[in-house]
Amino acid sequence: MKKLLLLVLALVMVFGAYTAAFAAAKKIGISMPTQSLERWNRDGQYLKAQFDAAGYETQLTYSDNKNDQQVNDIDNMISWGADLLIIAAIDGDGLNTAMNHAAEAGIPVIAYDRLIGNDAVTYYISFDNYTVGVLQGKFIEAALDLKNAKGKVFNIEFTAGDPADNNAGYFFRGGFDTLKPYLDSGVLKVISGQTEFQQVATAQWNTDTALARAQNILGSYYADGTILHAWLCNNDSTAAGVTQALESDYAGSNAVIVTGQDGDIANLANIVDGKQTMTVYKNVANEAVVTLEVAKALLNGKVNGEELAKSFSVECAYDTTSYFTSPGHYTPSFLLVPTVVTKDNLDYLVGTGLYIKGEDGYLKAK
């Protein structure tokens, strides 16, 4: 009996050592689009920290918003022997070569935050991107009390994101669809006439591009003092451009409602100062945690999407019908829930443990 017990214990120790070695041997390739936007620096850091702490070998790259470079970075990770790829795409339709190489090598792919238009994608992990736009639209609806307009007319302009980013269309449609009844009834008016996504899109979410377009709109349609009530911007980097334009080129005397997304430090300061009104915050630390758990299950061959989503410590839905990589090919998705942040609830961000508030009332990242 004693010998049997010793044998069992020995086998357990061997199996445990094998399991630990197996986990440690797994290589995770993490490809982020750029370091020029604050949020991608946070995403990359959180992801790498999570996977490093879990004992995986990681390789993190940033591709400077250059699609060819991202293709090359991913191919290098495949050659490195990556067991799993986590990719936030620069161009969701521009990675076919690298994705095909991953499929040929049998490497699973997690499309992180931005969906990739290739069937090699195994899972998509993001926030409910349509809801981001809905929250922005509903904020404007409430702030202007559009439901009780009673003959009033309010002027609004739109700034959307990068056409190469799959999420940009969802953000824009969420906001536009929410406000469309008021646009149709005439309660809301877009004086520039720019209401199509391609008209209001901003390549690479670039602040200077958003600034130049906003200056052009203000100079062309509002220079005579016409009041602008709201500017729906789909993220913080474009909102930064719009707020700069409003400071320098807006002839009206009123404070314009400006929306955003991401909780960038400079934009949070603008919220404190009243230059931006709100941002939709997506806790990318939570996104990194969910990504790690999905990756663990995937590498162990044990993914039950619905059960896994229920096991997370954060609110997350498992969705198999909303996102597709090709017609009829729907991608299983894990979608987290975003939060509206204004000057009145900045302490919510402090409560995440990722920000600190100074005595001056401004927030800083920990």
Residue share in helix: 40-55%
Q: Briefly, what CATH class of the largest domain?
A: Alpha Beta
Widest sheet, order of strands? 2-1-3-4-5-14-11
Strand content: 15-25%
Fourth-level CATH superfamily of the largest domain:
Response regulator
- Unreliable sequence segments: 1-23
Mean pLDDT: 93
- Please report the number of helical segments: 13
Radius of gyration, taken over Cα atoms and rounded to an integer in Å: 23 Å
Extended strand count? 17
Task: Describe the main β-sheet briefly.
Answer: 7 strands, mixed
By helix and strand content, what is the structural category?
alpha/beta
* CATH-defined topology of the largest domain: Rossmann fold
Walkthrough of the structure:
By secondary structure, the protein is of the alpha/beta class. It has helices at residues 2-25, 38-53, 67-80, 96-104, 129-143, 166-185, 197-200, 207-221, 236-249, 265-273, 284-299, 305-311, 347-351, and strands at 27-32, 57-62, 84-87, 109-112, 121-127, 154-159, 188-189, 230-233, 257-258, 278-281, 316-319, 324-326, 329-330, 333-336, 339-342, 355-357, 363-365. The strands form 5 sheets. Strands 2-1-3-4-5-14-11 form a 7-stranded mixed beta sheet, sandwiched between helices. A 4-stranded parallel beta sheet has the order 7-6-8-9, sandwiched between helices. It has a two-stranded antiparallel ribbon with strand order 10-15. Strand 3, helix 4 (96-104) and strand 4 form a beta-alpha-beta unit. Helix 2 packs across helix 11. Mean pLDDT is 93; it is low at 1-23.
